[in-house]
Please model this.
Amino acid sequence: MSIPKNITQEVKTVAYEWQKKIQISRKGKEQDFHEMMLKMLKNPVNKIFLIELLDQSFRSHNENRVADQLEHIFAKYKSTDFFSQFEQILIWLFRDVGVYVSSISIPMFVKYLRNDISSIVIKGEDPILSKHMQKRKKEGTRVNINVIGEIVLSKEEADQRVKKYIKLLENPDVDYLSIKISNLFSQIVPHAHENNIEHISSQLEKVYSAAMQNKYLDKNAKENYKFVNLDMEEYRDIEITIASFKNVLDKEKYKNLQAGIVIQTYLPDAMIYIKDLYAWAKKRVDNGGAPIKIRLVKGANQEMELTEASLRGWPNVTYASKAESDANFKIAMDFLFDPEVAPYVHTGVASHNLFDHALAMLLAKERKVEKYVSAEMLEGMSEAAYEILKAEGLNVILYAPTATKETFTNAIAYLVRRFDENTADQNFLRHSFGLEVDTPAWQTLIKGYDDAIALIPTVDQKPYRRQDRNLEIIKQQGCGKLPF
Model:
């Protein structure tokens, strides 16, 4: 299929109307957040300072060490200008007094920071988490819980993480959970493909079983299994992640469990995996099983992929331009919204780009597949946009990172990545802070959308890393040349 030209044009009108409503409805904490982000973007030193502050200061559990690093960074960056007057007073008090009583000042500093970002990283302790979930449930919105945490380094850590997932699924207020294979198994080695799948599948079964044992009532008062979504991480793990997903859901006891998986469209080979998952899901449903869901994202590991490719001298696995990733995102929507595909593979359109959500809404209506599609956004990143999409009658799911006091250092690492990603030159969110229609920033976003649409017929759809170990290594001047 292909996206009709009248729809690609109408998208711009819909996005324009949405943005007009958003810019007059921002208020309170969201408005403060936008103003802070604008200050950070106007002065590049602000961004460098904030990333260093968050990334370097809280790694140690020694309060004296934390205080010393905070003082060092405050002294290093004297030209920052995005703190409020109240925050400037707090910083002055810390530098003049608090640095000498770190056992008191550092816990207070961390508590203030946790409260300040609580709309973006939800506090994981009960009753705070349950209260938030109940609030969203009253709004008719499902919340996809993402427990922030580093990769596990031992079997004991992996087992503890699985227990944490199960405990969350036992919470009556939680009905949607995202997990990662790096949290299920500590010894993922690309060469040991079958061994990885065996161990990951064993852990995944425990989580899926908990999802089936702890049912919830949907908005129609119908009892359902809870939903587990498998996030995607590094490119080297994509085959392992998909194979483990299929391996467990192919088992008879999980035949009726609907589960989800993420596909990243900044990978040129994304459509290869999507089509493979569709063929498998169709066979599964035709044999009496439940459909699956693909959560479409553009990708959040590009810096890591670029770094690995650079260090190893390998081709980078992602597109070089944002426009190509955006084009592939739309190609994936076009395929998944086909009435012949949608009943087997439901789609979550995960984006903050209004043009993406407008296209998804119009295309789903045109093809009458709305019930198979959800609009997905980050919790707390744009409450005004969330409310606009809800008002349109869209099925909105919020992706909510959570962290407890004990895992707050992991939340800080998450924040650093989000700040860096969301303020990248071509990211929609960079322009959305304080965005208004009929401005140069709005014209930049329209151009980005038009560029992506124009690339759809020609964008690469084959993997960029094409090493084949079955090919003979050709010797040249005494050195082995790998067949990349």
Notes: The chain has 18 helices and 13 strands. The longest strand covers residues 396-403.
